[in-house]
Design goal:
single chain, about 70 residues, alpha+beta, 5-stranded antiparallel sheet, 5 strands, about 25% helix, about 40% strand
């Protein structure tokens, strides 16, 4: 699993596996990518700071996510 935050466009990506995907919109600014078998491959959240409330919450998600992958 890889968690990435792109500050330039305020997008949080949680990538479970790198593969060819089909994207489905889940809600305004939130999409999920599925592999050919219908398994969740990644999630993308636009306007992440706005959705999570502040940059500290977002920083915690990214840092804890990276920590969990080791």
């Amino acid at each position: 699993m890889k968690i990435c935050y792109d500050r330039e466009v305020d997008t949080l990506s949680i990538i479970f596996r790198d593969t060819t995907v089909t994207t489905r919109r889940l809600a305004e600014g939130i999409s999920a990518d599925y592999d050919g078998d219908g398994n969740l491959a990644s999630i993308e959240i636009l306007d992440a700071i706005k959705k999570f409330g502040n940059s500290e919450t977002l920083r915690q998600i990214v840092i804890e996510g990276v920590w969990l992958t080791h």
